[in-house]
What does this fold into?
Amino acid sequence: MKNMLFVFNPRSGREQIKGHLMEILDIFSRAGYDIHVHATQGQGDAREIVRRLGHRARLIVCSGGDGTLNEVISGMMELKRTPLLGYIPAGSTNDFAASLKLPKRMGLAASAVVKGRPFPIDIGTFCEDRYFVYIAAFGAFTEVSYQTSQDKKNRLGHQAYVLEGLKSLSAIRPSHMRVQWEEGSLEEDFVFGMVTNTVSVGGFKGLVNQSVALNDGVFEVLLIRMPRTPVDLSNIVSYMFLKEEQPNEYVYRFKTSSIRIESEGPVDWVLDGEFGGSRTVVDIRNERERIRIVTVQTASSCPAKGRTRSIGCPSDV
It folds into this structure.
């Protein structure tokens, strides 16, 4: 028998897994897996169960939102031998599942876990003691994801983030920061910043490059400095969401495999939609192709060996 550790968050995404759990387990059983099932009991529980039991599994399957996925991968990063990862998205927004083009229907996603192919993805190391899968961010609106209650997320879904974000518009405050990366440096008053490896942030695809590769060893960085007037703020929004071609003097974009950000006072960070701590110095590093996750696309859609691989393409190894 093949051993599987199946970790799921029973509250994610309007608790939708309750109506699909038996179907999912049946799919895994018919595929020949001996399944250890664990329903998470609270924040941090998924990471802890993976740390304790993950070494026994050939495959670890996670079902929940982006936060649950972050915990499972964080636990996997601490294992001496890293199992294969399967993901059944069940959250309110599921940004990383959109990047992987995973099925939205839970039964189809479970079938993809047992029939798909491994694809290596980059993982971000945050201050040497935390990890993130697709985003580390600070500043305006970032507190919305972790301050919005699970009940409100379940009732309103993606709308919960939009509604809570509008409330925080008047509270925008800049942080003076020094930013250093491999090819440059900046020192400005920033109101927002994010280091990403995704095609969707908060359900919005316009914020990030849609041609991003999840296994190229570099992150996409976006930094916004403090606007001087309401008109400047409006222009920033237009640039970000309407994809205006003219560069915006307040927006910095670049790619890097590592970055250091220092601030004069503590700044709150969000990692994959969850609170990542309040820091004055942040070091972020890309761990290239650190985790292998099962996806549904096949090698027929991949470029030739030796070139940058697309989302869903198997490893050349």
In short: Confidence is low (pLDDT under 50) at residues 144-148, 156-169, 298-317. The longest strand covers residues 274-295. The chain has two domains: 2-122+289-301, 130-287. The two ends are 25 Å apart (CA to CA).
